[in-house]
Write a structure and sequence with these properties.
The chain is of the alpha+beta class. The chain has a single domain, classed as tt1808, chain A (Alpha-Beta Complex). Helices cover about 25% and strands about 30% of the residues. The protein has five helices and 13 strands. It has a six-stranded mixed beta sheet with strand order 3-6-8-9-10-11, sandwiched between helices. A hairpin with a 2-residue loop joins strand 4 and strand 5. Helix 2 packs antiparallel against helix 5.
Length: about 190
């Protein structure tokens, strides 16, 4: 049986044809990236962050989702952040396979050895160039969060208290990163 050659420039249509095999498939500007399932510590950090964001986002009527949730910027760019917060639930969300990138109040990537460079570079530029309000890069090795906002030349590096205010008229969420990392690394 002949195999079809991989396209030089990938589109979301070709991405949709890839197998559901436990890998994370993303395309950025037509380039395919394949990432294996994350390690246990990565998932544990993701769950700790979710547990701290959930009540706050629900109180503000924001939608908190975790990977694998596809976020699309164009027919050549679809990514899956580890965690994302939407300003509003998309229409027809029960059938939706992806959400539009500009609707993100927050995108979060938790660094892994295989994604470190892409998360800090290509994905950061993609999120911020496509209307994402705030982008966090969680670095488990350094136990910090790099906070990126549109127009910023560099990240704000947070190691203790992270303040997030997606809705200006509402009180900000205060995240105790020391406690989050202590729980993530407990018994590790």
């Amino acid at each position: 049986m002949a195999q079809r050659a991989a396209p030089l420039v990938w589109t979301v249509d070709e991405l949709d044809l890839l197998p559901d095999d436990g890998n994370r498939y993303e395309i950025i500007d037509g380039e395919l990236f394949v990432t294996p399932a994350p390690i246990y510590l990565h998932t544990r950090a993701q769950m700790q962050l979710i547990s701290r964001l959930l009540d706050y986002t629900e109180a503000l009527d924001l939608e908190l989702l975790a990977a694998p949730t596809a976020v699309r910027a164009s027919k050549f760019t679809e990514v899956q952040p580890d965690l994302l917060v939407l300003f509003q639930t998309p229409p027809n969300f029960l059938e939706a396979r992806w959400v539009p990138m500009p609707t993100l109040a927050l995108a979060v990537e938790i660094l892994s050895p295989s994604t470190r460079q892409r998360d800090r570079g290509l994905k950061r530029r993609t999120y911020l160039a496509n209307g994402v309000a705030e982008y966090w890069v969680m670095d488990l090795k350094r136990r910090c969060v790099e906070v990126w906002r549109p127009g910023a030349e560099s990240a704000e590096i947070i190691t203790a208290k992270l303040s997030w205010q997606p809705v200006p008229r509402e009180a900000p969420l205060q995240l105790d990163l020391s406690a989050l990392f202590a729980r993530t690394f407990a018994d590790a």
